[in-house]
Amino acid sequence: MTTPARRGRPRSEGADGRILQAAHALLTQRGYDRFAIDEVAARAGVAKTTLYRRWPTKDHLLVALVARIQDEVEVADTGDLRRDLTVYLGAVAHGLEGMRRVGREAAAADRSAGVVAELVAAAARHPDVGEAVRALFARRNTLPLRLLDHARERGALPPATSSEVLFDQLAGALYYRLLITGAPIGADYVEELVDQVLTQAATPHPERA
Amino acid sequence: MTTPARRGRPRSEGADGRILQAAHALLTQRGYDRFAIDEVAARAGVAKTTLYRRWPTKDHLLVALVARIQDEVEVADTGDLRRDLTVYLGAVAHGLEGMRRVGREAAAADRSAGVVAELVAAAARHPDVGEAVRALFARRNTLPLRLLDHARERGALPPATSSEVLFDQLAGALYYRLLITGAPIGADYVEELVDQVLTQAATPHPERA
DNA sequence: GTATTTACGCTACGACAGTTGCGTAAATAC
DNA sequence: GTATTTACGCAACTGTCGTAGCGTAAATAC
Q: Which positions make up the DNA-binding region (chains A, B) (predicted)?
């Protein structure tokens, strides 16, 4: 992994790290719309132009920050689908509730989707940011998707079940509440959601002749 | 509904309409981040300050626009749940795909969530905008929720089913794909989604002793 | 050594959101 | 009529994102 000895002046050692660190501090303190790029640059001890050479817009910087913050969510595959799903989705929901409070006084505790909404908008504004965000989520979702695959293989889900669609249902419900309805997504809701999906999947009833 | 004869100079007749019309035209032409408030005011023939007296931020104006654009989605309750859901969600998905293209050259056709993403961000930035958006969706969702209630009552869904949670699953899947994964939400996907939810709900299988 | 390449810091600038202050217009209250 | 209240238009201003130009610093190529 040695650098192949580029041509001109090398990039300032550690500037990236100092910028991200300063940006992270300001983001968590004030939120996305109330911190200025100029201030990030000043705190990091670099010129604003240097920052822009690395991240061409504030939106790009945001993705880099979120990708950094986002801690990996553990995925246990114990064979108890209900339990595994509840644990996993509970962790996701908890993480999202945390994102909600980034840059707000805890007292606020309103129903805003916070920084996740900004991330979504950033992805919509710039194609390359969108690509990066989608890659982030694709990577994050591989393990839970595999969890559903295994469940289907061992007969815990109907054989015709599509893991992708089922995952859309589960994750979608959480993001829908976070971003659209603003409804809370606590542990109790996650349990109800998983319960309903799996109970549905196990209870026969009329219709569908 | 006669005006109670207010005190001072009345608001300029029709200014609201002209502003909204001008803003709508610019929004559909260029998209949210590439049209300027100054330009809207100029086209509407009012001073910028007059516009700001009505909508305190660009985000507020956006909600007013979307609320205006959003056509009511028909909800048929024929007794055939699968069909009714497919039709309803198909219309919603079609509307969302339309929102995706607002302000973009048709050629682009990328995976951006477009104006919906901006709406979500606007809701996250201002508490009152969030309130308005949530009211918009609550109103929009009453009929489909009733549809699910009826289905449960006549035994087409398990009696323990929560309409709210089920609706989160369905609508959530669509918005999740629109806003997060960028995956298409065409008629084929809607059919697969409804099919899977209802097939799950009708097919017994092991697990859940 | 000199030439070249790439990054840096700095200053100035353009575009746009949103604000402020002020003079004026259009209504009601008396 | 005059006083009061509310809206309007206009112009100037601030804050912030992002860009452009330029001189300089630190590396490699020869």
A: 36-55
Quick one: tokens of A122? 């950033």
Q: How far is CA B74 from CA A63, A85, A168, B71, B137, in A?
A: 38, 35, 24, 9, 15
- Report how far residue A132's alpha carbon sits from residue A138's, in angstroms, rounded to the nearest whole number: 10
- Domains annotated for chain A, with CATH where assigned, are 15-54 (1.10.10.60), 71-200 (1.10.357.10)
**Residue pointed to by tokens 């951006």:** B112
Outline where chain B has alpha helix (H). 15-30, 37-44, 48-54, 58-69, 81-101, 114-125, 127-153, 163-176, 187-200
Taking chain B, what is the end-to-end CA distance rounded to the nearest angstrom?
61
Segment A80-122, tens digit of pLDDT = 999 999 999 999 999 999 898 887 765 555 788 889 999 999 9
Residue B12 CA to nucleotide D4 C1', Å?
20
> Which residues 14-43 on A are within 7 A of strand C at the CB atom?
15
Query: B80 near A206, Cβ under 8 Å?
Result: no
Identify which has the larger pLDDT, A2 or B82: B82
The separation, in Å, between residue A3 CA and nucleotide D26 C1' comes to: 16
**H helices within chain A, ranges in order?**
15-30, 37-44, 48-54, 58-69, 81-101, 114-125, 127-153, 163-176, 187-200
